[in-house]
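Hello K.,

You asked for the raw outputs rather than the summary table, so here they are, unedited. I folded two proteins back to back in the same session to keep the settings identical. This is the first:
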Amino acid sequence: MFSRGHLSVRGRAARPSGRRAPCGGALAVAVLLSAALAGCSSADRVSAAPCGTPGVGEHQIDLGVLIPASGPAASQSEAARAGIDARLGAANTAGGIHGRRVVYQWRDDQGSAAVNGVAARDLVEQRQVFGLIEPTVAAAGSVAYVTQRGIPVTSTDQVGSSSPTVFAATTVTGEAVDLPGRYVVGEGGRRAVIITTALSAATSMTADYYVRSLTAAGVTTAATFTFSSGADDPAELARRIAATHADTVVGVLDPRDLVAIVSALRGGDYRPKVVLSATGYNHTLLATYGTRMAGISIPVYYRPFELGGPGVEAYAGAMRRFAPQITQPEQDIAVASYISTDIFLRGLDLAGPCPTRAGFVAALRAVNSYDANGLISPISFRPEAANPLVCSAYVQANSAGNAFVVTEPNFCGHPLSP
C-alpha cells in the first residue's frame, strides 16, 4: 500500500570533545556558522548507554519520515528529504545527540491521509522508530494514532498542531490571523478569488484561513475555485476568474499550477492587482518560469534568504554539504523540513542521554523561546502560550522574474476570534 525506504545520513559521527554549551533563544547575529550548524545537538562527554525506549540504541537513534514521494504532491518529496538530510548531516558531523547518530527510515504516504496512517503504524510498530518527522500534506491521517500512542512528531502541516505530541514551527493552533488580508489591502486588492485543490485537510484549512483573513481585512471573496492539475484547463479557469471581476488571486495549490493560471489570465489581457501564493518561495521556479512568476507574492514564516544572517548561512552550508543533489537550496519545502528536523533534534537533546517519548514531549513543551538557530522569530511550545503565527515576511518575484524582492521583512497582524 505504501513504498518502503530507508536512509542513514552520510558522515561519521565525530567524537565529542567537551560538554555541551547552552543554546540561545533570540535571533542571533553573532553566532558562528559552526555553532549554528551544530545548534544544540553537540554530544555529551559521557558515552551513550543502551536505553529501553524504541528507536534508541547504543550508537544511534532511529526516526521515521513520511513524505509524499508519489501522488499529487510528489514534487515536494526530493526537497523535503534534502532538508532532513542537511540538518541531520550537520548534527551527526558535530557529534550527534548525546553521542548517538540520528538516522531515519522513510515511507511514501502518497499524499493520502489513509496511507499516511498506515505508514505511521508500520514505522512505529514494525520498524520501532522513536518518533516521526512529517513534511507531508497528509499528516492528518496519523494524528489520532500518534496522539493516542504518545509518539513525538514534528510536522510542516498545521493539521494536528493542537495535539500534545505534534510540534510545528508555523503555528501551534489552527486559528486565523488578519495578516494575508492586510497584505492584500496594502497592495491594492479589494475583491478576491481563491484557487485551491482538493488535496488534503491541510489544504482545506489553509483555504479557509485565507477566506477569514481576507474578510477581516475588508476584502470580499468573490469565489473559490478548485483546480486539478492535468484534469482542468488553466485557460478555462482564467475565463471564470475574469468573470468575477476580482482584482486579487490567492493560490492554495501547487505554485506551478498557479503560474499557469495567472499566465492564462494575463494572456487574456486580464491583470489582477495582487497575486498571492501560499507557497512557491523557490528559486528553482524562477529559473524555470522567469517572467511568468513576475509579481507573485509569497508569505515566508522564516528569515528570507535575501536578508542573509547566521541561520540562513548555516542552512545553505548544510544543504551544500549534505544534500548536494539539490542544486538550488533556496526553496521553501527544503527549509520547512530542515526546521522540522531541527525541532526534533532540540527535543532529543532536551530529553537527555536516555530519552523517552514522554520525556521528549514534556521537555519540548517547556520550551518558551525556539528560533531554529536564527531562521525564525522566537516561538513558544508551551501549551498555555499557544498562539497563531502573527508575523511573516513577504517576498515577491521581480518584474524580470529572475529574483525575489523582500517587500515586507516583518509584517504583523492580529489573531481573529473564533
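The second followed immediately with the same parameters:
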Amino acid sequence: MGIQKILISQQAPAAGAGTPYDDLIQQYDLTVDYRPFFRAEPLSVREFRAQHLAILDYTAIVFSSKLAIDAFFHICEETKTVIPDTMKYFCSSESIAVYLQKYIVYRKRKIFYGENSLASVIPIASLPKHRGEKFLVTATGALGESVRQLFLNAKLDCTGVVLVKTVSNDLSGLSLEDYDMVIFYSPADIRSLSENFPDLKAGKPLFATFGPATAKALKEAGHAIEIEAPTPATPSMVDALKKYLAK
C-alpha cells in the first residue's frame, strides 16, 4: 500500500511552526493531519480521595507537568490542605519548576528540577540532604510506575498518586478510512480508538506506534502494527517512517 495521507494522534503544531515531519512531507509529497485522540483533565476531589492518600504524610512532591501542578493545588484548596513551607518540590524540567510560582514563593532551597525527564530527578533526590524525604510522585500510568520503580531502586521512600486522568475525545466526525496510516503515541490513543471505532476492521488504515506501552496496547486491542518505534536503528518515529517510505 502506498502511503500518501497520514493522521497523527496529537495536537496540531502552532501555525508557522516547523515539525520533524516537514522534510518527509516535501520528499514524498505527503499529506499529514493532526487530531488528538484524548485530552488530559484534573481529577475531581472525590476521585483523588478514592486513592486514600494524605498529602501531608509526604515531605516532597514530584511533578512532571503543569497540569499536575494545577490539579495538586486545586485539590489542596478544595480539601483545605495547607502545604507547609518545608515541603520540597522536584520537577522534571526548569519550565515546570518555574510554573510553581503561580502557587508558591519560588525558593531554590526547596525547588529542584531535572533535565526534561523524571529519570533525571533521581540523582538529585538521592543526594544526602534529601535522603530522608517521603516522595509523592504525580506521574501516572506506565510512566508513573516506571518512575516509581526508579525511586525504589534508588532506595527512596516514594508513593505514586494520580492527579490527572485521560479522557477520550469524540471522534465521531473522523473517517479513518480516508488515511493510509495513523500514528499513535500513547496507550490512551488506543483506548480512544477502541471506544470511537469498535467495529474497525483490519486493512486501511495501517497503524504505527511509538513506545512499547503504545505498541502493547494496540496489539491487545487486536490490531496489527505496521511501524513500531523506537528501535536501535530508528530511535524516532520520523526515522522509522523515513525508513519505511524508502522501501
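The two ends are 11 Å apart (CA to CA).

Happy to rerun anything if the numbers look odd on your end.

Regards,
P.
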